[in-house]
Specification:
Elements: E1 2-6, H1 8-14, E2 24-27, H2 37-48, E3 56-61, E4 67-68, E5 73-74, E6 84-85, E7 92-97, H3 99-110, E8 112-113, E9 117-121, E10 137-140, E11 149-151, H4 152-156, H5 162-171, H6 179-198, E12 202-208, H7 218-229, H8 237-246, H9 252-264, H10 272-282, H11 291-295, H12 297-305, H13 307-324, H14 340-348, H15 359-369, H16 377-390, H17 395-404, H18 413-417, H19 424-433, E13 448-452, H20 456-459, E14 463-465, E15 472-475, H21 479-482, E16 488-492, H22 493-496, H23 506-509, H24 515-520, H25 535-549
Parallel strand pairs: 2-7, 3-12, 5-8
Antiparallel strand pairs: 1-12, 2-4, 3-7, 4-6, 9-10, 9-11, 13-16, 14-15
Helix pairs in contact: 5-6, 8-10, 13-14, 14-16, 16-17
């Protein structure tokens, strides 16, 4: 193992450049780039402050390993498969640890983030607490960038003398600079060149399998990658498990992306984490994540061999949700894990899939009561064992398994009435409530929105007298009272926007509505309850209507 050092400008120029050591690339086992603009900006501040940024880990190899380019112009939704490089047996450098830092440097110095380039406040640099930003960086659109914001790549890749560059930067000022401003500008130009061009700020360890071909096998590299990354806070366990899978399945990224695209097209949010946990469960390995399961080559081979069956089982359950239940969007799906036993049954007994009774009851009660919340791996395993024992999806029996695990399935008055404005449960209940209300309209700008019937802005004006001071400055209706389901309704975006309901009181909004509209939204028809001073009476009357609506659910 060799220890190497390099300047940031040189290292960035090596990325995607096969003229330098065959180029520096990302192996397929690396996860997608996940850093935010703020994280990148803080990285540049750290470098300017001469903070260490940890050692990188690089593998020098001739192995025909699937690898990809670093992204220069980053934007949400990029597909990793678009950046793949043809496999070859030439010497090359693959980054095993440090992707997020190198990718951030590449975006900041060679590309853009959501069409914005990295700019540096050339007048920043005042002393700051360690947790605060001292050197200010921002991703800005070119037309918004005015002095003192200077495009940072123009500083780092300037090839003239630093003093001349400082003069050019000062000349861009839209005002006369003070002596202190001129001194700060000159100091920052020199500082940037020192830290990004002159100083060997990047250290990396090189694992050499070219000159020492027997030193590190591909299996060794995967193990090193896992150990190097397992302590990070951003890299989830599913990423590590997927790295083991991708090492033996060259089409893994494409197949996973295809499945997730198909699953999420209607508006759900299935994740790779969910798919991998489901894979383990369907193959009889148990729902809990354990790297040893993926180190077992037989598990990986089984996933690859049975991927089409696994994908079909997950897709069929998704189609059931979308086509035959009230759950048509991620906004009404508080938890996905309760779906795994259903997928298991579909996978193991496809011939019986169309004959399940009361499946919608199972989905509804487990979601409303949060039966699969927390850490449900053991519960998932118990449910799949029950399915195996009787070769059927017996909802009553599974409810018994769930209760025996110490989890509640009771839908009570409080379950419904304590649902709040910002919770996913409110969309679940509204999907039941508004059965014919399309949660996925043709126009995205007309998506349904949860709205306060009595506007928050007006309720906040209602104050009670403070007994200690005599002033009316105590808020009568706290957030929890304002946000309860009895003060919420579902509206189209167009209804709720400009020219729509906005902050109108019920007396104004409901005045011209017919009985069909009032019945749909469960609005008490006593118009005297629509006034602000009758808010509490309105809430009590509407609670009764809501409980009557959901009487069939109550235990």
């Amino acid at each position: 193992m060799k220890n190497q050092k390099e300047s940031i400008r040189k290292m960035v120029s090596y990325l995607n450049n096969d003229e330098k050591d065959g180029g520096y690339w990302l192996p397929n086992i690396q996860r997608p780039f996940v850093w935010s603009e703020d994280q990148i900006e803080r990285l540049f501040d750290s470098i300017m402050r001469e903070y260490p940024i940890s050692t990188l880990l690089v593998w020098r190899t001739k192995a025909e390993i699937r690898h990809r380019k670093f992204v220069d112009n980053y934007k949400q939704g990029l597909r990793l498969t678009d950046f793949y490089v043809p496999e070859n047996n030439k010497a090359k450098m693959l980054i095993l640890d440090g992707q997020q830092r190198l990718q951030s440097l590449f975006i900041g110095l060679k590309g853009s983030y959501e069409k914005k380039e990295l700019y540096f406040d050339i007048l920043s640099g005042e002393s700051a607490a360690p947790e605060d930003v001292r050197y200010r960086f921002r991703f800005l659109s070119n037309y918004k960038a005015v002095f003192p914001w200077i495009c940072f790549k123009e500083i780092v890749f300037y090839n003239g003398m630093p003093n001349r560059l400082a003069d050019e930067v000062i000349a861009k000022a839209d005002r006369e600079l003070s002596d202190n401003d001129i001194a700060r500008t000159t100091e920052n130009v020199w500082k940037a060149i020192q830290m990004f061009v002159q100083h060997e700020a990047l250290s990396y360890q090189e694992l050499d399998s070219v000159d020492n071909p027997d030193a590190y096998t591909e299996n060794d590299i995967v193990e090193i990658f896992i150990r190097a990354n397992s302590g990070g806070t951003k890299l989830g366990k599913s990423d590590l498990l997927f790295s083991l899978l991708t090492s033996s399945w060259e089409d893994s990224d494409e197949r996973m992306e295809e499945l997730l695209d198909e699953l999420n097209r209607p508006g759900y949010h299935f994740t790779r984490d969910f798919v991998l946990k489901t894979c383990l469960t369907l193959l009889g390995k148990g729902a809990s994540y354990d790297i040893a399961k993926f180190r077992d080559g037989r598990t990986r081979e089984a996933i690859i061999e049975r991927w089409d069956e696994i994908s079909a089982a997950i897709s069929d359950v998704k189609d059931f949700l979308q086509g035959k239940t009230f759950i048509r969007t991620d906004r009404a799906l508080p938890s996905y894990l309760g779906l795994i036993p259903i997928i298991y049954f579909r996978f193991k007994f496809p011939g019986k899939w169309g004959n399940i009774s009361n499946l919608d009851s199972y989905i509804l009660q487990t979601l409303l009561t949060g039966s699969f919340g927390g850490r449900p791996d053991t519960l998932i395993d118990k449910c799949t064992r029950r399915i195996d024992e009787i070769s059927d999806f017996d909802v009553t029996g599974l409810f018994g398994v769930i209760r025996a695990d110490g989890r509640s399935l009771e839908v009570t008055r409080d379950t419904i009435l304590n649902t709040r404005y910002s919770s996913k449960d409110i969309h679940l209940l509204f999907n039941l409530w508004y059965r014919d209300f399309n949660y996925q309209p043709a126009y995205e700008n007309n998506l349904p929105q949860v709205d306060h019937i009595f506007p928050q802005s007006l309720l906040k004006t209602v104050k009670d007298e403070n007994p200690e001071t005599g002033r009316r400055n105590i808020l009568r209706y706290k957030t929890g009272f304002r946000d309860q389901i009895a003060n919420c309704m579902l509206l189209r975006t167009q209804e709720n926007g400009a020219g729509g309901k906005s902050d109108a009181l019920p007396m104004q909004w409901f005045r011209d509505k017919d009985d069909e509209y009032l019945d749909l939204h469960l609005i008490p028809k006593d118009k005297t309850l629509w006034e602000l001073d009758r808010f509490e009476d309105f809430i009590e009357a509407r609670k009764r209507l809501i409980l009557e609506k959901f009487q069939y659910l109550l235990q």
